[in-house]
Write a structure and sequence with these properties.
This protein is of the alpha+beta class. Helix content is 51%, strand content 12%. The protein has helices at residues 80-96, 126-130, 137-156, 211-214, 222-237, 247-256, 271-280, 292-305, 324-331, 340-355, 362-437, 444-518; strands spanning 2-4, 10-11, 25-27, 36-37, 41-49, 53-60, 66-72, 104-110, 113-119, 124-125, 159-160, 169-174, 177-182, 189-190. It has a 6-stranded antiparallel β-sheet, with helices on one face. The chain has a 3-stranded antiparallel β-sheet with strand order 2-1-3, with no helix packed on it. The two termini are 16 Å apart.
Length: 535
């Protein structure tokens, strides 16, 4: 099996150049490359992998869209717990719906493989970006705003990532600036789901794991905030808070001492930003910020002081721009069945040009007429496929817009609720202090005032909680309805594509037969591999 890196099409091993664009073909040896997983995803190439899984670039054979296919390591597929944990990522991400989180679009088990499918994001991993050294604090803050927004939404849905690190953050250059995309919820903990106990295993990456998790204590969303603090520290200083040789020393250092202040690395950042990072790295969870919303607010405020009002509108020109051919590849990725109508039309044109208007015997005239009719049917079927594709694309666009709109409304309600809970805690702390220090009923007027305020806040909190739950139910209902429409659309598309391929095969054969009679070779030498497109 060989691949064209320019158009991402696969070809038999005997070819040397791509018949579509003339680029040299490369040999691929991975046994999964070339296979069609779950009868939908044709594997193109391996993108990378980790300890538990490998990620491949794949193309949906029905809707001609590039995707990232994540496959659980073969030996782990035998474990029911590992399979459940792996597929839980799809369950987790599908509940979040945030523009800074890579979407999972499909998942399942097929031919002894366990897989999930993500949207393909051609970005640069943050760990690659950090190889060039520390980032300007403004750039780090821009990425931090987006990551904290993504975490806030995940936590709001009861999901803890548990493995936040540079390798799980993609930085994408888009019109308007840089966008941080959080991915790989493979070891996410869903707070309302049954726990999966796996003895003697530590999940996470040394250097980014919160101390309370290492101590075996109860964990919550603030373990993600610790990891976010490590990320910010690393982006600002170019080093981890604790740099040690070996896994165990790396794990133990956060339990034994505090990290060096950023200033000791020669880093100049606003004092409030430095305080935020060090607070995130606090050993005790209760000393960290209460929520990711609070982190987002501090970072946003520091950026606003610099005159930066949009989380992505900075560093548009940072680094080298993507090569033009790569942009073309992303925007106009090879679409196999969209080639069928043009191939039939161009082949028919070659035959008719060779005839030059000369008269043909009746039976050959009939064969040419049939070939023309079939080519027209292929063009019509191709148009129907394109219309169905456009309808699916529009449904998906509407779904993203709907999830973004409702998600932002949820964020605002959750932010208000978090602020109320903070004020509620302050009142409770003051009441405890008064109970401890007052004697013989003194300061009773303040106690009464605080009780009334607490009751008022509780009413508002209950109302906000009810609104959040109602909006979450509405979002789930809308997602379910959209999924049903998309399923019907994809089934319709599958039928249209099957009809198109059948017509194209008939047309190709008819044109080839007429061409043989007049001495025209179909296909010409430069497109000999094009027959594979008809399969």
């Amino acid at each position: 099996m060989k691949i064209c890196r320019r158009c991402l099409e696969l070809y038999p091993p005997d070819g040397a150049f791509c018949p579509m664009d003339g680029a040299p073909l490369e040999v691929v040896t991975d046994p999964l490359v070339g296979k069609t997983v779950a009868n939908r995803y044709r594997v193109i190439s391996r993108l990378g992998g980790g300890g538990m899984s490998s990620v491949y670039l794949a193309r949906h054979v029905m809707i001609d869209r590039l995707s990232a296919l994540k496959v659980l390591r073969g030996d782990l597929c035998a474990s029911a717990a590992q399979r459940t944990r792996f597929l839980r990522e799809a369950q987790a991400v599908n509940r979040i719906n945030h523009e800074n989180i890579v979407e999972v679009t499909d998942y399942g088990e097929w031919d002894q493989l366990v897989f999930l499918v993500m949207e393909y994001i051609p970005g640069e991993p943050l760990h690659t970006l950090l190889q060039g050294g520390p980032l300007p604090w403004q750039r780090a803050a821009v990425l931090g705003v987006q990551l904290s927004a993504a975490l806030a939404r995940a936590h709001q849905q009861g999901i803890i990532h548990r493995d936040l690190k540079p390798g799980n953050v993609l930085v994408v250059r888009r019109t308007g600036g840089e966008v941080a995309m959080l991915t790989d919820f493979g070891i996410a903990k869903i707070l309302d789901a049954p726990s999966l106990t796996m003895t003697a295993q530590i999940f996470g990456t040394p250097g980014y794991i919160a101390p309370e998790y290492l101590e075996g204590k109860a964990t919550d969303e603030r373990m993600d905030l610790y990891s976010l603090g490590v990320l910010l520290y690393e982006m600002l200083s170019g080093t981890l808070p604790f740099e040690e040789d070996g896994t165990m020393p790396m794990l133990l250092q956060p339990l034994q001492r505090s990290p060096k202040p950023l200033q000791e690395h020669g880093v100049r950042v606003p004092p409030r930003l430095s305080d935020l990072v060090m607070a995130l790295l606090s050993r005790l969870p209760e000393q960290r910020p209460r929520s990711a919303f609070q982190v987002q607010d501090v970072l946003s405020e520091e950026l606003r002081r610099e005159g930066i009002f949009s989380a992505g509108a900075l560093f548009l020109g940072a680094g080298d721009p993507q090569p033009r051919d790569r942009q073309d590849q992303e925007e106009t990725a090879s679409r196999p069945f969209s080639h069928l109508a043009p191939l039939c039309a161009s082949s028919l044109a070659r035959v008719e040009a060779a005839l030059g208007g000369q008269p043909l015997p009746p039976h050959e005239q009939l064969a040419l007429k049939q070939a023309r009719a079939l080519a027209e049917q292929v063009a019509s079927a191709s148009h129907a496929v394109a219309m169905e594709q456009a309808r699916i694309t529009e449904l998906e666009r509407y779904g993203r817009l709907l999830r973004t709109t409702l998600g932002r409304a949820l964020d605002e309600l959750a932010r208000d609720l978090a602020e109320l809970e903070r004020r509620h805690e302050e009142i409770l702390a003051r009441r405890r202090e008064l109970a401890r220090t007052s004697t013989e009923g003194k300061q009773g007027w303040e106690q009464a005032t605080l009780e009334q305020e607490e009751m008022r806040l509780q009413v508002i909190e209950d109302e906000l909680t009810a609104q959040i739950r109602a909006l979450q139910r509405h979002l789930e209902e809308q997602n379910h309805a959209l999924d049903e429409k998309l399923l019907q659309g994809r089934l319709a598309l599958e039928g249209r594509v099957a009809a198109l391929r059948s017509l194209a095969a008939q047309a190709w054969s008819a044109i080839d037969e007429v061409g043989g009679r007049v001495g025209v070779r179909i296909p010409p030498p430069e497109t000999l591999a094009a027959r594979s497109i008809l399969r």
